[in-house]
Amino acid sequence: MARKPDPNRKTELALAAFAALRERGVVGMTMSEIALALGMKRPALYYYFKDLGELFDAVLTAVLADQQAYVLQRLQPDDHPIDALAAWMRATLAFYEADPQLIGLLLQFWAVGRPDAARDVLDRARDLVEPIRQFAVALLEDAVRDGRVRPCAPEPMLDLCVAVVDGCLVERISRGVDPHATLELFIAQVLLPLKSPVI
């Protein structure tokens, strides 16, 4: 039975390959050129990734894990659930603003590596973030029950927050819009009014 690739080495290689793609461009890049850029033989790269699609999957998984770690470091365990949700939105935006080219490069790499697997890629991304989403929904449900948050539908509210962040990121890329005004307006006029006054 063949030995499985070391997952840490696989992630390391995926991120190094993504760095090479940043430098040289995504379109037209082949596995042979990536192996050359990494200073390794093509069979060694194929040991870890069978094709560009599998390499893209590893990059996407690593980026989403980095995003989650970045965001979680900026949340305070004793924050009010609404304040935590606002902090999550701001931190998610900040993660991508720290690397303004990241989303565009991921989209280009997706188009090259997984052009016919849109549903699969979206499902994998959703599966990676779903546990955190469910945790946040549960926090909001508890806060509505105990009166810290005014009555609302926690699951659609969280989905709305995700949609606002995603929309802000897309608008920044597509139209060059500063997303902060939109995000802060949403937080001030939609999220913060959900906080129940202290009794």
How would you sum up this structure, described in words?
- It contains nine helices and no strands.
- The mean pLDDT is about 85.
- Helix 1 packs across helix 4, helix 2 (about 30-40) packs across helix 3 and helix 4 runs parallel beside helix 7 (about 120-145).
- It has helices at about 5-25, 30-40, 40-50, 50-75, 80-95, 100-115, 120-145, 155-175, 180-190.
- It has one domain: Tetracycline Repressor, domain 2 (Orthogonal Bundle), CATH 1.10.357.10.
- It starts with 6 loop residues before the first helix and ends in an 8-residue tail after the last helix.
- It is elongated and about 65 Å long.
- The chain has about 200 residues and is mainly α.
